[in-house]
User: What shape does this take?
Amino acid sequence: MDIIKDLDEFLGGHFIYTYANGWNYEMYVKNEDTIDYRIHTGMVGGRWVRNQKVHIVKLVDGVFKIAWTEPTGTDVSLDFIPNENKLHGIIFFPKWVHEHPEITVCYQNDFIGVMEESRLKYETYPKYVVPEFGKIFFKKNEGQNNEKVISEAPYEGMIEKIVSGELTF
Ligand code: FER
Assistant: This one.
């Protein structure tokens, strides 16, 4: 991936990164208002989601914000600085996701009803806030609206296959 300045160069971006707390996340910026992602390790490792609607803006040259609210009630705000292989994320988890993370560990698209029932049934407050810097260790532009990038559940060894080029999209 070359140096990125504008939003059109950021869209289609595929990033894998490690937060300072050790959690591994994978983000595909599908188009100007949509992401697909996989969570490989951490509190909700194994969770994956396609076609999440988000807000994406360029803040200044080479710096981009992606923010959204999940069907679980979890809110996320990420600032990507891809040219420096860096991001900062804040995740605002409802109390229930922190207490029952396993409910959200699934291919969420098939369980939207379960997420909506759970967010009503369990407690929201106080929220569990996770603010972390992350290091991007894989980045590639896969083109926009590429349905192959995030098309299967995360598994042990998948990141290594993507990084080595054994798994391409
Ligand atoms: C990220 C941080 C949080 C991310 C996704 C989430 C793909 C989603 C969290 C959740 O819904 O549990 O960097 O990128």
About this structure: The first strand starts at residue 13 and ends at 19. Residues 25, 27, 37, 44, 47, 70, 74, 76, 78, 89, 91, 104 surround FER (CB under 6 Å). The two ends are 15 Å apart (CA to CA). The mean pLDDT is 98.
